[in-house]
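WARN retry 2 of 3 for item q-0093 after timeout on previous attempt; input resubmitted unchanged.
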Amino acid sequence: MTILPDLHDSPAPGRAGPAAAKAPPNKRDTLRRIAEAARREFAAKGLADARIDDIAVAAGVTKQLIYHYFRSKEELFACVLDESSAQVMEALLALELDSLPPREALRALLDAMLLPYQDRELRALAQEGIRYHETHTTPRNSFTGMAPQLNGMMRATLARGVASGDFRADVDPDLLLAMAALATTSAYVNRYTVATLAGLDVAGDAGAATWRRFAVAFVLSAVERERSTLDPLTRAAQ
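OK item q-0093 returned
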């Protein structure tokens, strides 16, 4: 994980001072260690209970050095969130869907949406991030900045499926993308509901595999012109 250079290669305004002289020669490595330690701390404790002192110890730097680059704990948290979002979005945008048949292209996109949430730290950050973004705005948001490209991928995939006769023509691609994101990933940030209503623990390998099969089949069923029997809406793999 790397902190975005245009945000963090310079110290926070008003924070330059003696701490700057203590920064190691390899500034980028220092920022990387701070980011990785912060990610673990925020994922384990949440924003409210995370401590800059503990992040500093884990990163092998002083607390003063962290505040040299970040105005507050909240700013550091926002940067960790943004970098995590950027990594997820970059992986999605790197998919080469045009070479796949429409149905398999949509499946590949849905599978890729699910994959990052098998990481426990990312799931915890996602939960905390949802709460944070409800009440905060950030100067940079990779998710909103890169979302139009993801919308474009969904539109192109859906259009190819309509042209080939695989998909219905009466599906809004942007609404489909939003529903697909919620249908696939929400189980990982709201495990309690899934466990209570379906008796499924998506934190375990078996539960995650069951949810992945069902969620992907569910979204595919919404767009298929003729419902395929290849992906039944059941718990068991066929």
